[in-house]
Amino acid sequence: MKENEVMKAIMHRRAIRRFDPAQITEEELEQILQAGMYAPSAGGRQGVIFAVCQNREANEKLGKIKRANSNPRMATGTNFVSKEQPSIADDPKLINAFYDAPTVITLFAPRNFLFSVDDCAVAAENMMLLADSLGIGSCYIGQGWTAFADPYGQEILRKWEIPDGYYAVMQLLLGYPRKEDRHPAAKPRKEKRVIRF
Predict the structure, then answer these.
(1) Own/partner pairs, 38-44, CB within 8 angstroms, 24+ separation
(2) How far apart are CA 48 and CA 166, in angstroms?
(3) Which of 14, 101, 130, 191 is 20 to 30 A removed from 151 (C-alpha atoms)?
(4) Mean pLDDT, to the nearest integer, of 108-133?
(5) Domain extents for the chain?
(6) How confident is the model at residue 92 (pLDDT cuts 50, 70, 90)?
(7) What's residue 195's pLDDT?
(8) Cα-only R_g, the chain
């Protein structure tokens, strides 16, 4: 069977939470954004707004606000997100929910539209697959609004001119994986997840 490039990216992509400080290139960013903008959207509405922040200071402040407003159920010995790339639920010492990623894209969508979360999720998946194919690590972070839940966050929303009626659904973190980390291993696929009639 011929190897399919899309399937290769699907099989290889992993959540990356340890990033090299080097910024991704403008060309790479544009390709990733285009992948998001060509994602399916309910009714073809294209309602998702992609707010790109490559300002390290702003990303660090927003990541710390998000961490302070997140209350993940902390990991246990048998229940955890990742041992190879710990999340804020795995390691209480992590104070930046954006894991020092050099590029953070916040996906905003209409607050009162039934499929806003779905539209953001499929856009993020397109972007994560394209990023992986370019050698760029990514991580999907849900509950995007918690990063803006203080006066600094509200000031950023005004600065970015986010329209009324839109809210931050999620953040997509992008950056080159740290060279000293090996690529996270795939977890075995669980059985009995496909039912055929």
Answers:
(1) 38/126, 39/119, 39/122, 39/123, 39/125, 39/126, 39/127, 40/119, 40/122, 41/115, 41/119, 41/122, 41/123, 42/113, 42/114, 42/115, 42/118, 42/119, 43/115
(2) 9
(3) 101
(4) 97
(5) 5-98+130-175
(6) confident
(7) 94
(8) 17
Residue type, 138: S
5-98+130-175 maps to CATH 3.40.109.10 = yes
d(CA 92, CA 25): 32
pLDDT for residue 80: 75
Which amino acid belongs to residue 16? I
Residue 75's pLDDT band (boundaries 50, 70, 90)? low
Residues in contact with 144: Cβ distance below 8 Å, sequence separation at least 6, in sequence order: 106, 107, 108, 167, 168, 169, 170, 171
